[in-house]
Amino acid sequence: MTRLTPDLIEGVPEDTIDLDSKLMSMCGKTxxxxxxxxxxxxxxxxxxxxKVACVPITSGMGVISGFSSSVDAIVKRLGMQSYVTKGTDxxxxxxxxxxxxxxxxxxxxxxxxxxxxxxxxxTNNSWGxxxxxxxxxxxxxxxxxxxxxxxxxxxxVGTEAVKILKSWGANVSVTDIKPEKALALQEKYGVKALExxxxxxxxxxxxxxxxPAIFPGRLIMEGAVVSTPGVPHYFDEESRKKAKAxxxxxxxxxxxxxxxNSAMYSMER
Length: 269
Ligand code: PYL
Description:
The structure is a single chain. The protein is of the alpha/beta class. It is 39% helix and 17% strand. It folds into two domains: 6-125 and 251-264, Rossmann fold (3-Layer(aba) Sandwich), CATH 3.40.50; 128-247, NAD(P)-binding Rossmann-like Domain (Rossmann fold). It has helices at residues 6-9, 19-27, 31-38, 67-77, 89-98, 125-141, 156-167, 179-189, 197-202, 237-242, 252-263, and strands at 51-55, 81-84, 103-107, 112-116, 121-124, 148-152, 171-175, 192-193, 206-209, 225-227, 245-247. Residues 1-4, 56-57, 63-64, 67-68, 107-109, 112, 125, 251 line the site of pyrrolysine.
């Protein structure tokens, strides 16, 4: 998973990209509506009683400036009560438990989890990102059943996305810079491993890009729907002209998905 940098997330607390408006125009749904769909909930939910603590974690490469405040803002936009603990790591975790919160969000260099204290269960960001961007793709594409969908990247997010899209009846192909990783998914999930990413990209209208790769517009199909959590993220002018939708944000869709999914572990469905 590529590590975020402060510049990539500096606009998240104030939602400077106005993500809901972008998603409404591309998918017909807000972040919260996409997250509820990904959590298998077919109605709105009032999360105002859900108390969440975001705990900064200093291990490994340490705190990312703006990360906890971004997670806090995203969770607040879902209607939940949220705060960033004063303490970090175990100190922050213990503060959250003493405060009697319902859910704790925290990330080290390997994992980002939304832990539901009551259910003693968590959702991780790899699944959350894969589900959130798969639901966005499905809505933007008007459904994926029976359609050819390309997943780029066979890492943690790409693998979850392969499983999700396959379960929805899509004809899934997967490609990775390491061909053996795509072949392993072919073996395990009965999807198609494609070796040449450029050929794969140029022959697919529906794409979930879970790799930190940057693709030239000449490879993008006219009317393509690209759901792309990968960071760093850049689509050139030609891509933007040709694509019907390019769905991207640096953190929000995955975080909202995991927060909603974990909240629902202890709420009426
Ligand atoms: C969860 C993000 C999504 C993409 N890459 C993942 C990443 O950057 N992980 C590292 C998160 C570190 C957070 C740091 C803090 O500020 O608490 N430990």
